[in-house]
Design a protein that fits this description.
242 residues, 26% strand, six-stranded parallel sheet, six-stranded mixed sheet, 7 helices
Length: 242
């Protein structure tokens, strides 16, 4: 069943209105007819509804709400602070992280970052569109936001607000991600931190640890920057949802 997102003001009197690109996709690409069932999510209220198309206009589609669907979001909210990677790796990270349940992604400047974000406004538009597409495909109840890039110092301030913050570190030999997660069961949110291609600088690691961030190994093998967040999210999903 196809999944779409609308604003709160497009849901009223048990009817949801779809317009814009989604209207075109439903009418001209999917060629869905009156009576077809689709899922519609309220972007602001994070509510999901089972609906049935009842009218196809020239610019809008109106859907009758049949039932409220329970959220399929993880009970623990996960924010990914990603050291800015090269080229199209960020797009891959966004797509797969959204599929696995991340709540937000924050590109983060670190010492070993080689890549720079040029035309940041356009990049953010594209990245958030990738997030929306992945959210639709994976039947998410929300569209995870891709935020503006932040500095490492800003990261140090932000991680203090989380119930648990974890940095993946390839030289950690004794504490696994599983060990950390097992000790923190009753939490509401997690920050996961992944370095760029060059990894986390030792001084940055010390500053993170001083800010209360836990270091964790992801296994015996060294993972690429685009693989590490996927591994972390998969382990978190297993620990708190499976």
């Amino acid at each position: 069943m196809y999944n779409f997102f609308v604003n709160s003001n497009d849901i009223y009197d048990d009817v949801a209105r779809i317009s814009g690109d989604d209207y075109n996709h439903i009418k001209n690409v999917l060629r869905m007819k009156i009576g077809a069932k689709i899922l519609i999510n309220d972007k602001e209220k994070n509510k999901t509804y089972l609906t049935k198309i009842q009218e196809v206009g020239t610019k809008e589609i109106f859907c009758k709400i049949i039932d409220r669907i329970p959220s399929n979001e993880m009970i623990v909210k996960v924010s990914l602070f990603q050291g800015i990677p090269k080229a199209d790796k960020m797009e891959y990270i966004i797509q797969k992280s959204v599929e696995l349940g991340v709540n937000e992604i924050v590109p983060t400047e670190m010492k070993n970052c080689v890549a720079k974000i040029n035309n940041e406004e356009n990049k953010l538009i594209r990245w958030n569109k990738i997030s929306e597409t992945a959210a639709k495909q994976s039947k998410r109840s929300i569209i995870p936001k891709i935020e503006n890039k932040i500095s490492f110092n800003t990261l140090l301030d932000r991680v203090k607000k989380f119930d648990l913050a974890i940095v993946a570190y390839e030289n950690e030999k004794h504490i696994s991600l599983r060990d950390v997660l097992n000790k923190h069961q009753n939490i509401n949110n997690i920050a996961i931190i992944v370095g760029p291609e060059g990894g986390i600088d030792k001084n940055e690691l010390n500053l993170l640890e001083n800010a209360g961030v836990k270091t964790a190994s992801l296994g015996k093998r060294i993972l690429r920057t685009e693989t590490a967040p996927i591994a972390m999210l998969s382990m978190i999903l297993y620990e708190y949802e499976m």
